[in-house]
Amino acid sequence: MTRAFSIATLAVIAGVGCDRQPSTPAPTSSQAPTGEPAATPPIATPPIATPPIATPPIATPPIATPPGSTPPGAELPPVELSRGAQSGVSADGTYTVRWEVVGGAIPDAEPFSIAFAVTRADGKPVSPEAKVFVDAEMPHHGHGMNFVPTVKRKGGDTFVGEGLLFHMPGRWVLAIDIGEDGVRERVQWNVDVE
Ligand SMILES: [Cu+2]
Asked: Can you give the residue range of the structural domain that contains 140?
């Protein structure tokens, strides 16, 4: 008897316990939110301003010289003439000119160049504005060359005449004219071409 009672009592207690088990209350909005706390705004870090490294421009002095201050081509090395260069003096004795064929010999009916150096009798340099021309003719035939040579000034009052062409054999007269301050003087040589 006693034993059964005990069992019933236990059963009742157990049942009561099950029925009255309070259910966990549902969370309400009034309760504190269970989520993560609001993220703190990031601290704005201003970008580190790196000042540009100022590189001053390298001042390059102008190479060009004002016109007239130096002879054109004076910055170039002078043309070297050999000991075999022919020499001549202009009619009034102002200029002594030495010249030779570039390459050593006048080619047969082919263009060639001459190099020449001009020396003034008074020792002064040839004017930067000097007009220098090279020409050749065959006086016995009454004709000249078929082309007009060009003259390029080099350093040290030396020059190169380009584009000469002796198109036939015979006696040619090579002439170099130098004009300064409106006065032109000529130096010339007989050149026999076989
Ligand atoms: Cu001729």
From this structure: 86-193
Closest by alpha carbon to 171, among 194, 155, 152?
194
Ligand 1 mean position, distance from CA 159 (Å): 26
The residue written with tokens 């020059």 in the block is 159
**Does residue 62 lie in a domain region?**
no
Domain count, the chain: 1
Q: Is 3 a member of any domain?
A: no
CA 24–ligand 1 middle distance (angstroms):
132
Residue 13 lies in a domain: no
Distance 171 CA to ligand 1 centre (A): 8
**DSSP single-letter state for residue 153:** E
Q: Is the whole-model pTM more than 0.70?
A: no
Q: What is the CA(140)–ligand 1 centre distance, in A?
A: 7
The CATH number of whichever domain residue 121 belongs to comes to 2.60.40.3340
Per-residue pLDDT of the chain (194 residues; tens, 9 = 90+): 444 444 444 444 444 444 444 444 544 444 445 555 555 555 565 555 555 555 555 554 444 444 445 555 556 889 999 999 999 999 899 999 999 999 989 998 899 999 999 999 999 999 999 999 999 999 999 999 999 999 999 999 999 999 999 999 999 999 999 999 999 999 999 999 99
Residue 138 CA, ligand 1 centroid: distance in Å: 5
Does any domain span residue 150?
yes
Inter-residue contact 114 to 99 (CB < 8 Å): yes
Count of CB atoms within 10 A of residue 30's CB? 5
